[in-house]
Specification:
95 residues, mainly beta, six-stranded antiparallel β-sheet, 36% strand
Length: 95
């Protein structure tokens, strides 16, 4: 499945702000339509298709490194450091 976000296809389990969230953004954790785990980044304080900035796919097994993807599903690099990856996605979205 493409690394894109659609509210209709997502099962959000948690949404909010934590120490890793860039200022002016919120994150959500959940499953896509295929059951893959994701950490999604949004502008503002709530998830929506329009506010989607990028995502980090959460590995399904130990030993795999999370990968980050931009708004349109393009690969944005490995995401071994979640905070740095979210900051990079936020910066890419404003560039």
């Amino acid at each position: 499945m493409a690394a894109r976000f659609r509210m209709d296809d997502s099962d959000i389990r948690w949404c909010g702000v934590d120490d890793d969230t860039p200022p002016g953004h919120c994150t959500a954790i959940g499953l896509d339509g295929m059951g893959s785990k994701w950490l999604w980044l949004f502008r503002g304080d709530s998830p929506s298709d329009e506010a989607f900035v990028g995502s980090v796919q959460i590995p399904d097994r130990a030993g795999k490194v999370p990968c980050a993807y931009g708004r349109n599903g393009g690969y944005a690099g490995l995401a071994a450091d979640t905070k740095a990856s979210l900051a990079k996605l936020a910066a890419r979205a404003t560039a």
